[in-house]
Amino acid sequence: MESNGIVGTANKVGRRALNFTQYALRLKLLVCAVLASVIVLKTTQLHANTIVSLIEAKEYEEAAEALQNLAESTKNVEKLGDIFYRLGEIYYTYTHEYLKALGAYDKVVQLSEKGLDDQFLSYIKKGDVYCRLGEYGDAISTYQIVVNQSMPNNFAHQTALQKIRNIRSAREDLQNQRRVISVYEGTPLAVEARFQIAELYRNLYQLNQPEKAISEYKTMLKRHGDTKLSPEAQWRIGKLLNDVLNQPEKAIEAYNKVVENYPSSNFAADALFRTALIHNEQKQYEHAVQVFGQLEKRYLDYWNMHAVYYWMGVGYENLQNYHRSIHAYRTFLLAYLPNLDSAHFGAIGKYNQNASKIEAELKAKIRQLESDLPKIEWAKIEKYLAEENYISALRLVRQLIADAPDAAYLQRAQSKLRSIQKQAAIQQLRMQMRKNLGSATVAQTLFRIGKIHERGLQDYEKAIIAYRQLIDEHPDSPWAAEAMYRSGLIYANQLDDLQNAIGHYTTLIRQYQTSTHTIMANFQLGKIYHSLNQYDKALKAYQTTIAFPEQDRYLANGYKDSFADSAQFRIGRVHYEDGRYDDAVSAFNEFIASRLQSPRRAAAYVYLARISEDRGLPGEAVETYKQARSLIIENSIQAKMVIDEANNLGFQGTDTKAVIKRLDNLSNRLGRK
């Protein structure tokens, strides 16, 4: 990183204090351990869980009020001392109301027995508060009380004595740096001096004024613009705001400035890392993984990349995105842990652990995530479905099918895939429709939505709604006629609502006279009237169909089909079913003569044979059945049309053989007569 790295940036004051810093840190940890043990012993009496919850929720005033209420309700001196100590910590650490903190620690001093560690610790905290207030004389006097009243081998005595030395040394250094500025204003030396002044205020073991340090860093940045120290100064602001002043939102703003203003600096990479950690700590895991992702892509040589993958795994795990969590954990486990120095374990929160233990824990976690994955993924799928978020559900269903080791969840996903895919397509189309307001595009999109509902999901009511919206909002669109036609089909074939079907077809014929769907609508009207035994109306509709230009559909072996072909054939059927045999014979003979490539020729011969049979002409009937048989043997499509068109004559088989067998049976029976 720049200079000697973020942690070890060139710092004259820091170098002078380095040896003691390590010693003082050990003392601080010991003090914290003692305090923690005292607090833990009293948690049940002080309702500590409630207080901790309020602090975690950043409800500091409520936490302080709760402690004050506890203080008023107890006369136990030991409990009161603990309450006021914790009040002091809230005012000092979280709300930065230093005068209130001073008052709280003062009460602990008064309540504590003289010469005991509790009292010494409270004096030290008072001294720290005076430092925050910039009252270094009072701070030194307060630390001196501890020195005077404690034994030289007592950790409080040693801590207080060193704090006094540090303050005096730092204040001397402060004067030296100010002299450098006055002599070398506008030079790199002055910039360095301003940075060192901020460092003196920043350091908890020196002047301990983080707010003042931030002010000095900002002054340096404002006066000297972009210098070698600028990225670190901006980074330090973020670190102080988060680590010391507990202001994570402001810290993120400060870190963002590092990334924006100094993107090529290694401090920018670390600023992203610390921003993501803040999001993780605040349980804003979605933001955390996004920032980790940016860091992974933008700063490929970031020295702490192992921690990026580890904490990315934590973020995705909390988001219950187990696929990505497993991938991140495995990357850390296989790519980084084998060569990772134990000194870096702290970056992943694994202090005092060895690589073997970390590896075992992570492998167990990955196994558990893999085991839980199908159940968790299915729960998310169901949640997305309940929210009608089909696009997200589809992505998870596909992934679950590909990865699920559990057969039960695999079967569930497979059974849902088709319908979810259709619903996702509709959702995507509606999103596209909102983006593109062009009438033609919207009309076509509505038609596709209706068709997916109709054919893909068999949700006919919703299909009608989509078609209706298209017809009402875009009546001049070429898709409107087809939407009306398909609505008629749904009413006739799926909803058994023939009156609505007739209404749609009639409207279509009247409003869209030149549409190709008008031909089809006439044919469908003929079918409906035919089914209702309204033969004259059926004939009229079929005859109108024939009058339109034909639109042929070419089939195998040179056959071709069309609505006109079907309508002309149906005219013969209508006459037959209405008992008008002469008209039927005339119609079928005309059909056979004019429709040489029709797939219904065999069916026409079947009807002619039946009419001959009904008229008592068995020989003629047999010959006609033979003509039908020869066509069926020639091509199976003729057999299919016999089944479709002559099922009322007993041709209800499923294949060519069944139709031929039926014809042979009829011919043999008639031949015996």
Which short descriptors sum up this protein?
673 residues, mainly alpha, two-stranded antiparallel ribbon, 2 strands, 1% strand, single chain, 31 helices
* Helix proportion range: over 70%
* Uncertain runs: 1-46
Strand order of the largest sheet: 1-2
Q: Rough shape? A: rod-shaped
Mean pLDDT: 89
The biggest sheet amounts to: 2 strands, antiparallel
Rg, alpha carbons: 44 Å
β-strand amount: under 5%
What's the number of extended β-strand segments?
2
Going by helix content, strand content and strand pairing, the class is mainly alpha
State the helix count: 31
How far apart lie the N and C ends? 108 Å
Textual characterization of the structure:
77% of the residues lie in helices and 1% in strands. It has helices spanning 12-41, 48-56, 60-72, 77-95, 98-111, 117-132, 136-149, 155-184, 188-202, 210-224, 230-244, 248-261, 266-281, 285-298, 305-318, 322-336, 355-386, 390-403, 407-435, 439-456, 460-473, 478-494, 498-511, 516-531, 535-547, 563-577, 581-594, 601-614, 618-634, 636-645, 656-671; strands at residues 553-554, 560-561. The longest helix has 32 residues, at 355-386. The termini are far apart. Mean pLDDT is 89; it is low at 1-46.
Outline the secondary-structure elements.
Blueprint: H1 12-41, H2 48-56, H3 60-72, H4 77-95, H5 98-111, H6 117-132, H7 136-149, H8 155-184, H9 188-202, H10 210-224, H11 230-244, H12 248-261, H13 266-281, H14 285-298, H15 305-318, H16 322-336, H17 355-386, H18 390-403, H19 407-435, H20 439-456, H21 460-473, H22 478-494, H23 498-511, H24 516-531, H25 535-547, E1 553-554, E2 560-561, H26 563-577, H27 581-594, H28 601-614, H29 618-634, H30 636-645, H31 656-671
Antiparallel strand pairs: 1-2
Helix pairs in contact: 1-8, 2-3, 3-4, 4-5, 5-6, 6-7, 6-8, 7-8, 8-9, 9-10, 10-11, 11-12, 11-13, 12-13, 13-14, 14-15, 15-16, 16-17, 17-18, 17-19, 18-19, 19-20, 20-21, 20-22, 21-22, 22-23, 22-24, 23-24, 24-25, 24-26, 25-26, 26-27, 27-28, 28-29, 28-30, 29-30, 29-31
